[in-house]
Amino acid sequence: MTSSRGEGTEWAGMLADASRARFDAIVAVDVDRLLRTITDLVAVMETGAKVMQEASAYEREWAPPP
Q1: Which 3 state secondary structure label does DSSP give 3?
Q2: Which residues, in sequence order, are bridge partners of residue 51?
Q3: Please, which residues have CB within 8 angstroms of residue 30's CB and are 6 or more apart in sequence?
Q4: pTM above 0.70?
Q5: Would you give per-residue pLDDT tens digits along the chain (66 residues)?
Q6: Which phi and psi angles does 24 have, rounded to 5°?
Q7: φ, ψ of residue 25 in degrees (nearest 5)
């Protein structure tokens, strides 16, 4: 079951802060946990915030050098 994302939730607060440019990016361990629906994706896109996914330990270990 998915928890509510309506008014008064941490989700709504994050979107409000992103809209006010209190931060530039949202970092998630796994993007599918952050953006559960297309509606969530649209809501984040409308704020202008970037979404970044944290690399797993495996990805960090095997990533090519910069």
Answers
A1: coil
A2: 26
A3: 53
A4: yes
A5: 456 788 899 999 999 999 999 999 999 888 888 899 999 999 999 999 999 888 765 555 665 666
A6: -100, -25
A7: -145, 155
